[in-house]
Amino acid sequence: MDVDIGTIGSPTHRVVDVHTHMYPPKYIELLESRSSIPLIRKFAGAKEPRLIILPAEAESLDKTAGSTETSSSHLPGRPVTTHYSSLAQKLHFMDTHGIDISVISLANPWLDFVAPEEAGEAAKAVNQEFASMCAEPSAVGRLFFFATLPLTAPPETLLAAVGHVRSLRHCRGVILGTSGLGKGLDDPALVPVFRALAANRLTVFLHPHYGLPSEVWGPRATEEYGHVLPLALGFPMETTIAVARMYLAGVFDQVPDLRLLLAHSGGTLPFLAGRIESCVVHDGHLVKEGKVGPGRRTVWQVLREQIYLDAVVYSEVGLKAAVDASGADRLMFGTDHPFFPPLGSDEQGEWESVTWNAEAVKKALGDGTDAARAVMGGNAVEILRLHEDS
Amino acid sequence: MDVDIGTIGSPTHRVVDVHTHMYPPKYIELLESRSSIPLIRKFAGAKEPRLIILPAEAESLDKTAGSTETSSSHLPGRPVTTHYSSLAQKLHFMDTHGIDISVISLANPWLDFVAPEEAGEAAKAVNQEFASMCAEPSAVGRLFFFATLPLTAPPETLLAAVGHVRSLRHCRGVILGTSGLGKGLDDPALVPVFRALAANRLTVFLHPHYGLPSEVWGPRATEEYGHVLPLALGFPMETTIAVARMYLAGVFDQVPDLRLLLAHSGGTLPFLAGRIESCVVHDGHLVKEGKVGPGRRTVWQVLREQIYLDAVVYSEVGLKAAVDASGADRLMFGTDHPFFPPLGSDEQGEWESVTWNAEAVKKALGDGTDAARAVMGGNAVEILRLHEDS
Fold first, then answer.
1. Fewest Cβ atoms closer than 10 Å to its Cβ: which of A109, A182, B228, B236?
2. What is the pLDDT of residues B241-271, one digit of tens each?
3. Nearest CB to B274: which of A73, A314, A343?
4. Nearest CA of chain A to the CA of B378: how many Å?
5. Does residue B159 register a pLDDT over 70?
6. Which contiguous run of DSSP H or E holds residue A173?
7. In chain B, which residues have their Cβ closer than 8 Å to the Cβ of A225?
8. Given an 8 Å threshold on Cβ–Cβ distance, is A221 in contact with B272?
């Protein structure tokens, strides 16, 4: 292995991956049963069924309907390899990259699409599967998880789900998309949910899925630019918008114990925090409404007191900005596995997408420094209580 | 003055503002004659007419139609003070902040809304007014400008306009929005325009205006969050998307001499460059099309060879990331005057929006260092040839 990002088993220098997804069997069944995105579909001639989740992929899905095309590069979505669902494969991936502990989570779009009356049971089933995986003999001590909430369910079901996931031994938080109950994370109806999560010391892993309306990518994007624009820009921009809306709605004031882990190093929040602050203090409307003045919690305070950032930013430049914004004690390494596999390999060896992020930590914080070790795992152990097996 | 950002007249340590707008009389007349945004409108009881340019402001414009509301904080847009149009006021602002030279430009949305048959003459008139301002005795040597192109005009008019602005003594480039000819800056029809600009050593100042579709700000934004989301996030995200589309279309390869100055330190490009790179090399479609491989110009190369960034990012964190991405020799100080005036003052003293950016340079690069001086003015003098009075 070119990049030795960790030494498995070293008690003081654990490497922890806080951004790593799994699709347990029940979730795969759910997606296979659907005819609109998100869905999993088999194509003639393609070895693996394909996962189609992004709005941009729906278009090419329509085009391939009834097609006998067998070249997989023309098929929409991505192949559902064993990396998506196999515990053994996840552990192999961890071993390959020197990762001691993974905090796994269901990938987008979670249960956002499930009918209200089914969401509660679906969440229970999925969370139970995650709990079982973490309790497998091969996984104990190496796997924890972020649970999934039934956001489309009635409020009492949703709040009950918080209680349920809190009781699951290896659960350390919940993964949440940006749609919330359908109106975004600045929806006042979500405040009781945030309060319940905070009261139960459940960290919220905020993760994008919806991106931006496709018109912003222009007429050439779908045919010529692959998935680069929605993934590289749409995802981090969506996260930034969601958290800025929460900030402006006062969620961080209303739920001071809320702890939010932002995917992709905050989207673009570290870079834009200064501009957000400037726009706030120069906004005549906010000033007149008394929202700007003494006692106001700044974006910088929120970044340093209530927000954690993963280190999935693929560059030294981004990593440094994330550290400058939130502090090296609030960043946590991640891989985004099973997404971004190396192209043209059997996916069993080293993944470049992983090593880029590990290299960024080394370059930004130094090789083997305390700060680098904290980001690679020490912070996650402390923040997510990974030394406790309960 | 609390923050001494420059000493006027010091020959080796010039302070240059490359991001500063003006509305010459002919442009104000044009906006006054309109009934849909962009427009300038007088309101009963309001001292100054108001400039309404953002899509988000159109809504509140409709609500105030026929209103006798006299509190200006309820009125849409912003007051057109003398800061928008008066040369004396611009020079006073420069003196107040220790700015030796300003490279002025028309503000958004420029002439994007002008009918094709009128655009050529409108551009000529506006550019001539800018040229005249720069030639005023009080301004000579202190003012240069970025010209405006008639983008809605027929191709031959547009290309002729490049020739015209090149002939104007104090013109050093053009300011450009992200819509281009209506299809974005990755439109192949723009390549001849970029070539003509590059051949004439005219820097393109890329500036946002259109933001993102308003639905992304959610149901509470218009009433509760002022203009923060469209300005703080929409503008920089628009810029990032535009330049990423140019990159993916190969514009930087096709026009190697193109020089692009990105507003607001590149929007979010420095922070997201790593993720863009990762998404490109992991995109099956791009790899199959041969767009990824040896010889490919990376985003980092474009940032370090073809892009300049202004230093309008309002934080040390952002400034450092911009420097890390493009180099301290490619950053240029700016103010965004006359936008973001201090609230509750007569606007004749020091502007906090300016000092935040000057402070960020000091904090990121050190007080009085060569790098800080370069960003505050030295780079602009060299890059935009401000030592040449022709």
1. A182
2. 999 999 999 999 999 999 999 999 999 999 9
3. A314
4. 24
5. yes
6. strand A171-176
7. 245, 248, 286
8. no
Burial of B367 (0-12, 13-18, 19+ CB in 10 A): exposed
Q: What is the ipTM of this complex?
A: 0.95
- The DSSP bridge pattern shows strands A101-106 and A16-22 to be parallel
β-partners of residue B210 are none
Residues of A in contact with B57 (CB under 8 A): none
* Average pLDDT of the residues of chain B: 92
The b/e string for B333-357 (b: 16+ C-beta within 10 A; e otherwise) is bbbbbbbbbbbeeebeebbbbbbbb
Could B313 and A226 be called an inter-chain contact, meaning their C-beta atoms sit closer than 8 Å? no
Dist. CA A174–CA A197, nearest whole Å = 8
Of residues A232, A245, A343, nearest to B276 (C-beta): A232
Mean pLDDT, residues A76-99 taken together: 93
Can you tell me the distance from the alpha carbon of A314 to that of B287, in angstroms, rounded to the nearest whole number? 19
- The domains of chain B, with CATH numbers, are 9-26+83-383 (3.20.20.140), 27-82 (no CATH)
- Residue A182 and residue A119: Cα distance in Å, rounded? 14
Q: What pLDDT score does A191 carry?
A: 98
Tokens matching residue A157:
């079901």
8 Å CB contact of A274 and B344: no
Instruction: Name the strands in the sheet holding B39-41, side by side, starting at the edge strand that comes first in the sequence.
Output: B39-41, B50-52, B78-79
- CA-based max dimension of chain A: 65
Mean pLDDT for the stretch of residues B110-134? 97
What are the chain B neighbours of A287 within 8 Å (beta carbons)? 343-344
Does the pTM exceed 0.90?
yes
Which of B59, B81, B272 to mutate: most A Cβ within 10 Å?
B272
Taking alpha carbons only, the member of B341, B318, B361 closest to residue B3 is: B361
| CA-closest candidate to residue B346, choices B92, B5, B142 | B92
The predicted pLDDT at position B2 comes to: 41
The pLDDT tens digits of the residues spanning A346-389 come to 888 999 999 999 999 999 999 999 999 999 999 999 999 999 87
Contacts of B315 (CB under 8 A, 6+ apart): A273, A274, A275, A277, B356, B360
| C-beta atoms of A228 and B217 within 8 A | no
Contacts of B107 (CB under 8 A, 6+ apart): B21, B22, B23, B53, B339
